[in-house]
UniProtKB/TrEMBL annotation:
InterPro entries reported for this sequence: ATP-dep_DNA_Helicase (IPR050615), Helicase/UvrB_N (IPR006935), Helicase_ATP-bd (IPR014001), Helicase_C-like (IPR001650), HNH (IPR002711), HNH_nuc (IPR003615), P-loop_NTPase (IPR027417)
Organism: Methanobacterium subterraneum
PROSITE patterns per UniProt: HELICASE_ATP_BIND_1, HELICASE_CTER
Helicase C-terminal domain ranges (all copies): 290-455
Pfam hit, one: HNH
Name of the protein in its database record: DEAD/DEAH box helicase family protein
Amino acid sequence: MKEELEDFYREFNLIKARKNPSHINLRTHQTQAIKNLMGWFQKNDSSNKGGILVLPTGGGKTFTAVRFLCQGPLSEGYKILWLAHTHHLLEQAFYSFGPKKIDVDRGYEVGFIQEPKNRLNVRVVSGNKNQYSINEIQPTDDVLICTLQTISSGFKRGQPNLQAFLDSCDGKIFVVFDEAHHSPAPSYRKLIVDLRETYKNMHLLGLTATPTYTDEKKKGWLKDLFPQDILYQVSINDLMAQNILAEPIFEKPVKTNFEPDFDDAQYNKWINSFRDLPEDIIGQLANKKSRNQFIAKVYAENKHKYKKTLIFADRWNQCVQLCEFLRKEGVRAGTMFAHVYVTPTGRTLGSGVANAHTLEKFRNDELDVLVNIRMLTEGTDVPDVNSVFLTRQTTSKILLTQMIGRGLRGIEFNGTPEAYIVSFVDDWSHKINWAEWDPLEESGELIDEPPIIYEHPPLDLISIDLVRKLSRLMFERNNIEIGPFLKSIPIGWYHTKFYSLGKGEEDYNEVNRLALVFDDEKDGYERFMDRLVSADLSQYKEEEIRFEDHQKNIQNWSEQFFGNVDSMGDIENNIFYIACHIAQNEKEKPQFFPFKERDAHDMDSLARNYMEFNQIEADSALRNEYARNDRYWFTIYPSYELFKQQYDACVNRILNLRRHKLSPAFKNPTKPGQGPSDEQKRKVKEKYPTCLCCGEDRKQILEVDHVNPRFMGGKDSIDNLQTLCIYCNTAKNTKEIDFRFNQTNLPKPLPEIPDLTPPHNNVEIIQTWEHYLQREVNFFYCAGAVKFVDASNPYVWKIELNEGNKPSWLKKHLRTLADKISVYRKDLGLDGPDVIQLVNA
């Protein structure tokens, strides 16, 4: 159960509050910040009033601003309009004026508001049904804490309740602009400019942890909005030196080896919504018992290092599971919820009494771990945290910053000198731009020039994209057709940046996208951008823009500028990103960054160097290459086996070229888009939802394969398409095998079982080995010959064949196959099989 509506409106009795003002002592940097803010506020001049407070994450931006507002503007009769672009920030600001339950021992923050004011009314306004709507604003309100979208839209259309509030200010309006570095969003600029034009004496205070630039040319719009520039700032290094902040120590991300079921259709629908992960995907992560058990085990095995730890979860049942698994490991763990949850059995979680009891035990060192759901906004005092566990990745920079900030309380705030940040990452099959902590961005340092960003980006931002593209080329085309290896590696990327607001949403997102550029595409992008600079892009300037609303226009641009290019890139999405960037950044083109190390990652060159080696020599040379510190192979290919598969494909391509007497630089002159359509692929996967060869059902590794390869004249028609997993597709290569038929059409058996690569991932799972055994046998019969496989008994594995497939062909190879698998499994620490049996034969 979430907060009720009344939770977001508060009437403070200031007569009572002034008798017990807040006992929280200001630190040196906060005292100096308020002194500077008061000097700016009290200065009498006719210029536009606008300045910025820069404090690093954990430095108390919101608290400092609220203390200043109480001592200054609110005491002088001003009303406050606090603007933020996410609901997290709204709640954080609201509870800074006063938490749900006032602790009389800590006093009232609003107790600093001077007479003659005797009451203070604070209201949260947004489109959220659990918060107040713009229609419920009252002229008697003193502080409105609102989403930008609500106020921007309301001011534009002259909403009467908002207008009545603004008029009630009698010119004394003070606007707080949370996360001020987001000011470039067009709606922010327009709203502030319009407010200032209407209310000439308006004061504007920006809050941010992000450095701004002293170069006037770089500041542009920022200088227009905040003409007095930075009023006060302090760096994260200064606060760590004063023991106010703990030093964050970021551990190497921990891989869970969990593969979320995020299919192409759902991903494509989500990717241009620019929101955090879909709720059902978050649910998959939260509800996976083995994953939660793994997280608990990571803490338990490192308890001496991580000590008192906050674990951020997403679902109440995940909190309960984590807590139970931790307790089984001998860890003292408790749960704490920001909201009240009623479980299906009627159990109530998250009551105020239970939360207070759990927090008290954590404070008194009676608990080692506190598991919670986004306990971020209520001003909850969480002391001496040594570590923060982030149980999943997020695309929300705000959410990530708030969670990390919970662990940065230094010794002066009863915290710790250091804080470990432990992140858990999953095995995603799609490219996702995760939010990252940028030490420079969060430092609070003033810099003269902006950092060179994305010149050497983390390769994991593009590796999944590369592997998927390479996989499709390897498995859906004959490997002659794919062209040189470097054709599949980008020559560089454009860094695009713009602001988005999803349909029906109020939380603005700052979107960063890398538009990968491949061979022969650069000229098209440059001509396209030259056209945009002189075009009317007003439609792309709005944050509410959606890809699907402009798809026809985007397709026309794609045909016009890239129609003759055999593209490897995601042209249409890149066109959309670039158009939004140029529209929202005053017609400025995104910066291009060349992939300087591209030529050092030419797999064809490796193939030519090593293909004459014997297998042992080649394997040794390749393992050394894969392990090189000056290469990105490990990031592009998460396992050596995948790296080796790509190498083998390059060798096969070169050998095929020699047989066909073609140049090594040969590219198949096909037009972009050749291959089955998305609709054809959908129909094939709907008809055959699992791999027809091995039975694999994980959607993210299923591909549509040509029974008769295109290189051999096979068509893109439905009757020539089948569903195979990535591993079976690799093994099939350019052979014509129809796994849709359960009976072999071979006139005689193959001389031996195909030597397919055994699995290297998820080897502890029985189904992994059942899929592998089924794959081996079906490739032997060149058909979907296997009816049933059972490897539940590690020592005796069983196979049943479909009718019409001669068991005698297989029987003489079962001993050799069992021995091969047993030796491989022994190296993995697994037993069996001792024997593989044919049943009903």
